Amino acid sequence: QFPFGRRLPCDIYWHGVSFHDNDIFSGQVNKFPGMTEMVRKITLSRAVRTMQDLFPLEYNFYPRSWILPEEFPLFVAEVRMMKDSDPSWKPTFIVKPDGGCQGDGIYLIKDPSDIRFTGSIQSRPAVVQEYICKPLLVDKLKFDIRLYVLLKSLEPLEIYIAKDGLSRFCTEPYQEPTLKNLHQVFMHLTNYSLNIHSGNFIHSDNVNTGSKRTFSSILCRLSSRGADVKKLWSDIISLVIKTIIALTPELKVYYQSDIPAGKPGPTCFQILGFDILLMKNLKPMLLEVNANPSMRIEHEQELSPGVFENVPSPVDEEVKVAVIRDTLRLVDPQKKKRKDTQYNYLMSCRCQPLEHVSEANEELLDAGPADRAENDAGKSLEAGLPSLCLKQVFPKYAKQFNYLRLVDRVAALFIRFLGVKGTTKLGPTGFRTFIRNCKLSNSNFSMAAVDILYIDITRRWNSMGIDHKESGMCLQAFVEAFFCLAQKKYKSLPLHEQVGSLIEFCEYHLAALDEKRLGCGRG
Ligand code: ADP
């Protein structure tokens, strides 16, 4: 620990909470700038909603959500409309304070009028979400899954998922919500931090029983019941990749602001905790993402009244030690150096006719990074370590998901026009330049109309009180403006095609401009 900072540069900086390394120029940091902000309940819901607008079917793994207090009228109106169209619909909603954790301040309601607007909730924004009433039960209990995901790099996008996770159980048998049982947290909320206080919580030495178990033990149970476990895993992988695709555009804005391109700085990686609920039909639903998942491998035990001791928790140890060990193996700076040396050697081999390249080298070229790491493990310093528990899923499955990365491309346009590095918001001049350079203004859309669009959208986003530190247009506001322009220009297409077409239009004009400038430079 270096509470007062460390003067000599490190290979890896491992923080407990968040990124604050604007003053280091090399190495790798275990947190991304802006990640804590991005996974807050409101920001995550917004980012996922943008993707739901574009790809409703692909993003139906996140419950319908509304942001309070600003969307309360919309919440009331939409619920009324849905109830009118289907009178048999008897929904339950869950209210979760923004920035809360461990079940803090969460409650269930049957009707929008039950939202508690008194006291602190008014000053505390929240998300209200459709409650998943029919979760999969094991031993009659509701449970959720904590999966560990390594975001190894943002650009290019590299994602790894741990092969095993934790299942955290409720401690009261589950019943579908009724007015009578809505308040029973041990029945409805799976948080470990809550259920540990229930008399029914079972600490287990065995990973297959108790109130916290390995996810693999659940999969074994499901598989023996005849469930399609392979499909379940593929749905989970897809949920993780899509969620990260929803987060990357804004993360890139934070990244360029803290670590400007072209200046020396560290690179980042981060272990995220995904909380997932399985529905009765085995569909995985995303509950939330934790930027700072607990890595504790002990739990407190009350030896005698009031006397507590930390004792090892075999379930936590089994899952978490492997996650940290393999994260370090994947970001190992020595390996990076070895890889660079291998790369140089391979490049020199490539200059020779192909038949001179040995089979082993060809294999190395073909293998994905995960396999490559395993290759290394077999050969070198890592000999004797278990095989990697972290499996690469992106870019491995990139082909299936790249079509979803539209907002990423909108963010690239936004970042291009941010101008002065170190900011996260676009000024009016930047917005005008974007319109001009992309040739979006015409007789139907004057520059005066451009200014009005900028002012309208920016004012509304800034009045939501997300970030008052900087003035100007945030990425989400820019995305809204971009969608507006796309709808105007390509009227009859579905939204994702409108947006896709406008992106291509802008990218085409910017490439032409760059070409022209390059030509001028040469001239
Ligand atoms: P926190 O950060 O406070 O843990 P979560 O979003 O994880 O907040 O919610 C706490 C718990 O509430 C979850 O672990 C889950 O058991 C339950 N829960 C949350 N959202 C839903 C939902 N939409 N449907 C059913 N259960 C939910």
Automatic annotation (TrEMBL):
<dbReference type="GO" id="GO:0070740">
    <property type="term" value="F:tubulin-glutamic acid ligase activity"/>
</dbReference>
<dbReference type="GO" id="GO:0015631">
    <property type="term" value="F:tubulin binding"/>
</dbReference>
<dbReference type="GO" id="GO:0036064">
    <property type="term" value="C:ciliary basal body"/>
</dbReference>
<dbReference type="GO" id="GO:0000226">
    <property type="term" value="P:microtubule cytoskeleton organization"/>
</dbReference>
<dbReference type="InterPro" id="IPR004344">
    <property type="entry name" value="TTL/TTLL_fam"/>
</dbReference>
<keyword id="KW-0067">ATP-binding</keyword>
<keyword id="KW-0547">Nucleotide-binding</keyword>
<keyword id="KW-0436">Ligase</keyword>
<dbReference type="Pfam" id="PF03133">
    <property type="entry name" value="TTL"/>
</dbReference>
<dbReference type="GO" id="GO:0005524">
    <property type="term" value="F:ATP binding"/>
</dbReference>
<protein>
    <submittedName>
        <fullName>TTL11 polyglutamylase</fullName>
    </submittedName>
</protein>
